[in-house]
Amino acid sequence: MSHSSTYDPFVLNEIPNLTAKCVLDCGCGYGIWGYLIRVCRSGNEAYIVGLDCIPKYLKFNKEHKVYDDLVRGDVAFLPFKEVSFDFVLASEVIETFVEN
User: Fold this and answer.
1) Which of 31, 27, 39, 36 has the alpha carbon at shortest distance from 93?
2) How far apart are CA 17 and CA 14, in angstroms?
3) CA torsion angle for 92, 98, 99, 100 (degrees, to 10)?
4) Predicted model pTM
5) Structural Rg of the chain based on CA atoms
6) What pLDDT shows up at residue 56?
7) Higher confidence at residue 43 or residue 77?
8) What is the pLDDT of residues 14-53, one digit of tens each?
9) Can you tell me the distance from the alpha carbon of 83 to that of 87, in angstroms, rounded to the nearest whole number?
10) Where along the chain do its domains lie?
């Protein structure tokens, strides 16, 4: 899936000031939202974690230093304690659930 920048201003407008906050970007992909948060929403003063289940995305973000930390995991089963983050973003994420 490619990212369309059409909605960026609308989404960024809804993101609060993140100074001294801990942020989780669920399904971070190639780090577009992590980058936009850093550049547009006080993200240089936030601790931003990228979460994705696809290794090539995590590798890309590690190489480009988009996030402060990266975690391989499933958005449907977050590997964090409750209230670990001040702000969570899950944009452009599609999950499929299969019933047993």
Assistant:
1) 27
2) 10
3) -150
4) 0.85
5) 13
6) 96
7) 77
8) 888 888 999 999 999 999 999 998 888 766 789 999 999 9
9) 9
10) 17-89
